[in-house]
Design brief:
Blueprint: H1 2-18, E1 20-22, H2 24-34, H3 36-54, E2 62-75, E3 78-94, H4 98-164, H5 170-205, E4 213-215, H6 218-222, H7 231-241, H8 243-263, E5 269-281, E6 285-297, H9 305-371, H10 377-411
Parallel strand pairs: 1-4
Antiparallel strand pairs: 2-3, 3-5, 5-6
Helix pairs in contact: 2-4, 3-4, 4-5, 4-8, 4-10, 5-10, 8-9, 9-10
Length: about 425
């Protein structure tokens, strides 16, 4: 019983080391956990967040402590020293809104960076989907290449048998063999393409590149079954859900606050202070005293520097508004072009399905006729080759449709 258990465990371990079953949802989750760029952006967002929170404490008073020790040698051989302890409290009670503007700037920048981080997540989800679906398509093509290899082998063996019986010429055998060898070549190439696509997926997921990741190729077909909404609906979703739309609003707000900041540079600042001092001098003894008062600072004139800074910020704000408009225009156009491409790819998939149905029927008919001597090897090879092309075209058409669909999902900010 123990021996059976050990054998079962070894077999299970061996199988699990060779393959790794992975659904699309699991792939996305794994990428979010391991993708280095996303981790970098997350830490960057935390940095901005703490910078924004630090601005809150500009509204609080500051408390500082200082100690000074001095030794003097004024009259030889008389030497004396002094030491001073000082506790100082400063509090800016009025700065005409400078601290408020700076706080709003940091907060808006944090919100801006947060939307950019969400955009990175959407980009990562798109990359994983693209790599996953590409790998499933390559796997499906490899499956078709294997079927085509078997069909070409059947044709070759059939021509060889008929040649031995003297029913066909040697050229039939040679033509069938050439097709068989070409199919072998395509199969080897498809196997390499599949392994390469898996490596690209594994790289995003943070697992070994050579890992034989098991993926579900059926999801390639199920993903393209549901149709997308009309363009207006997609565009409304884009405006509502896409993080970049919100980040553009914050970008405009940042430019506006930068302009306001230079207006407040013309205003005065009022602060209060209190200092408690404890002094000891070896000549005069102890002395304790307090200092308190009000400080009023107002930069009245510094040339035209502040005015030019204000103009610079003002025109930068206007420039930012046009940049935002241009970005939204480009994104809307891009979404519309993708929508048109999706419709065309949908038509291509339906046409590819019809072509493959006709090609299968044609190949079966030609193979039957060749077996009974009613057709030649050229017609058989041509029908088999047409079927092979139709099979590959179907997979590529489905892949193009799915890739267009996930592009649109990315554009409208869909994460699911």
């Amino acid at each position: 019983m123990v021996r059976i258990f050990v054998k079962t465990f070894i077999i299970f371990f061996f199988i699990s080391s060779l393959s790794y079953g992975l659904s699309l949802r699991e792939a996305v989750k794994l990428a979010k956990e391991n993708y280095p760029k996303l981790k970098s952006e997350e830490k960057k967002l935390l940095s901005v967040k703490f910078s924004y929170k630090s601005e809150l404490f500009n509204f609080f008073p500051t408390v500082s402590y200082s100690f000074n020790y001095s030794k003097y040698n004024d009259i030889n051989p008389l030497e004396y020293f002094s030491r001073t302890h000082s506790l100082t409290i400063n509090w800016t009670i009025f700065d005409s809104g400078k601290n408020i503007i700076q706080y709003k700037l940091e907060k808006t920048n944090y919100l801006y960076q947060r939307e950019n981080f969400k955009e990175e997540i959407i980009n990562l989800v798109y990359k994983v989907k693209k790599a996953y679906f590409t790998a499933t398509a390559k796997k499906e093509i490899l499956r078709y290449r294997k079927i085509q290899l078997k069909s070409a082998e059947v044709d070759y063996k059939l021509s060889l048998e008929k040649f031995k019986l003297g029913l066909v010429k040697k050229s039939d055998v040679l033509n069938a063999k050439v097709r068989y060898e070409n199919t072998k070549y395509l199969y080897i190439q498809s196997e390499a393409d599949y392994q390469t696509s898996l490596a690209e997926l594994n790289s995003l997921l943070g697992i070994p590149l050579e890992q034989r990741t098991e993926i579900n190729e059926k999801v390639l077909y199920t993903y393209c079954e549901s149709n997308l909404e009309n363009f207006e609906s997609l565009y409304n979703q884009f405006l509502k859900n896409r993080p970049i739309v919100k980040s553009l609003k914050y970008k405009k707000r940042l430019a506006s606050l930068e302009r306001e900041k230079y207006i407040y540079s013309y205003a005065p600042t009022v602060s209060v202070f209190f200092q408690k001092n404890k002094v000891y001098n070896s000549l005069t003894g102890k002395d304790n005293y307090n200092i308190y008062g009000v400080r009023f600072d107002w930069l009245l004139f510094d040339g035209l520097g502040r005015y030019h800074n204000y103009l610079s910020a003002k025109y930068n704000e206007l420039s930012t508004e046009y940049q935002v408009e241009e970005t939204l225009r480009e994104l809307k156009l891009s979404l519309f072009k993708m929508y048109i491409e999706y419709k065309k790819n949908l038509e291509k998939v339906n046409l590819a399905k019809e072509i493959i149905r006709q090609s299968e029927e044609n190949y079966k008919q030609t193979l039957g006729e060749y077996k009974v001597g009613k057709n030649d090897i050229v017609a058989l090879i041509s029908s088999e080759s047409s079927l092979a092309d139709a099979q590959i075209n179907l997979v590529n058409s489905v892949l193009n449709l799915v890739l267009t669909k996930i592009k649109i999902e990315k554009e409208i900010g869909k994460l699911d």
